[in-house]
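Section 3.1 - Work completed
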Amino acid sequence: MASTDEARPIRALSKDVVNRIAAGEVIHRPASALKEMLENSLDAGSTSINVLSRAGGMKLLQISDNGHGIALGDFPRVCERFATSKLREYEDLEQIETFGFRGEALASISHVAHVSITSMTAGAPCAYRATYADGVIVPAKSGEAAEPKACAGTQGTQIVVEDMFFNIPMRRAAIKGAGEEYSKILQVVQAYAIDNAGVAMSCKKAGETATELHTLTSHSTLDVIRLVYGAAVARELIPVEADDPSLGLRIRGYVCNANFSQKRLTFQLFINKRLVESTHLRRAIEEVYASYLPKHTHPFVYVSLRLPPNALDVNVHPTKREVHFLHQEEVVGAVQSALRDVLLGSNTSRTYFTQAVLPGEEARGRSGLGGSAGGG
């Protein structure tokens, strides 16, 4: 019996559907939107970045910086997909050293939230503000022109994102509670603060006076780690510095010594200043520490790698969270060697805790009347 189902014709998706699908690949939650905006602020040469959030970033996510700012003539293209100041030819990807390059971040955010941008460049007579929806400037109020408006301001950029995923109910429903989402936002700011010591960063909830994180331009990397993870962690860290000229590799970071361990691995990995993940490096690091730490415990590791831009492929994932790099085995091996070297040096001064024996207890222990306490 012939099927009654008719073959469906192939149709091109509408531009609106395409843009929403693309936005969903880049912007998974408020924290992923913040990561993109924070990287834009760093690309703009900012030395001060402030993040404000309400309802875990779902109601409000605001980032302000003192970077170069956006020229008035560039406002129409700010939220346009594949509009960027960092790339001209495909081959430029081989030398890309900025965080962003595709021009997708703000475009994607504007397709799933209400966006307004205020910016001022050095020497400009005033700042300008524009409101965006679906990649284009729209009137801030009914009856107004769809164009940037002059306003008061200081050099830099402020981006306000409101009502995230207002037009994607399923994504909005899948988002966790406000507390968990804010925690992820804070983790992004903390990670970039550690890797960008010298850039003042703050993060707080709207309506609250206390900031969850506040770093200063005078803070060192270790100072920031101490602020984020506490003095108990910071005092157990040792610096890692190694270079491999044959790979063009530079390794910098802080890792815990053999005295420190915890229930879960803390692994902050940056490659060419970008926060990324690498299962190969994660396993390799755990393998090194397995010789030093008790079973079922894990280390604290912050590592920042620099590789030649043409040895790194950052265009393998829309969020740029995952990267591929050439000579992966050699790079992983170089990181393992650097860790082994610093751990071997720190192990010579490894601390062992012992229990004091009270007067008279030693004799009683020898006679079998009591047990003596020994060090481990």
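Second construct:
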Amino acid sequence: EDLNGTLDFDVNFNELYSESLLGSEEDVPAVTDYPRSISPKKAGTNKGAVNRFNIGIAGSERVSFTDFAPHVFRYLRTKIYHVSDSEYLQSILSGVQLAAGVAGAAKDVVAKFSEGRSGAFFFYTPDSKYLIKTLTREEAQLLIDTLATYVEYMQQNGHKTYLTKYYGLHSVKMYTNVIYFMVTANIFPADKATFETIKERYDIKGSWIGRHTNRHLFEERLMKDEDLHRELQLDADMSAEIYAQLSKDTQFLQNLHIMDYSLLLGVSYQRIDTQRSVIQSVDSRHQTELIREHAEQEYDRDGLQQLQNEDVLGVSLAGHQQQYIAKANIVEGPGVYYLGIIDMLQKWNTQKKMEAFLKVHFRCKNKAGISCVEPVFYRKRFLKKMKKMNIAPKEEQ
């Protein structure tokens, strides 16, 4: 949607961001760089902790835009994730007129929030590298409360963790309504062609009650735990490595009393040319090189390839009646997995405890199968589900 001409902006965004976003080197955040609260009265007066300014939109009242912990998030972006300011701004500003600068990006976001939508929703940046998602007030406050611990963890695990990568936390106030939203990395590939190879998507929690969607693979829509009926085809070393990191990541979340998170799994289908490819044997799992030149192939009068008692994917065809066999030129199936932990902003609080009590004692649900359980059990069940998916230590594979 072209927003040019519909927005009237009269604040110099680039000056406001010159220190927090466009500076040279970003040092390790100081205590004063972390806001104490998302509430304006409690956040603190240090400019490094919170930046606030107004945005004018034609035909509407001015709205207040808040940037929380700008120095902290810039440190994460540039020092931990190794994304430069120019790369990040290019993604955020993609499709926005250069003259508009950072202002154009903020106005674009505000315009989306002012289109009359209600409830939580999300959208991607134009280049699909980042996800912008709305948060409840409680989720935004939890992000602020755990941000210092999160930064410390990312300093040690940022290059290998499966936790969601946070890039920014902001809010806009329109009339009397305040909308909080965060910017995170997109777990799935940004490239459109690569993204389209993902044929299966799952949200895995480890619970089973209410975790079935009645959807089918060909729909290519998000499914849940009980829709996944097969193991991931992973090398034993890779499987153990992923499990070890997931165990570490979920221990971090457990220490923060966080539960209700999910593993977002994308299954990318790969195509293998059986005529000239190195493919994996079904029986022995040893790689077998099947090189077939079209000039050497013999075809019968119906156009079907005559199979000369060959091994196809490690399965011998000797003794089979040839008229009942036709070999596929292309084999397609799961080949690459994309995975990451999402929805990490739900604490085991009084509300969740009441929800669990009502489901178990009034709706007679199995307390081991509901999503709403305390963090220690949640993690244990989550990792048990990983093992069932063939993400497990070597000794349990």
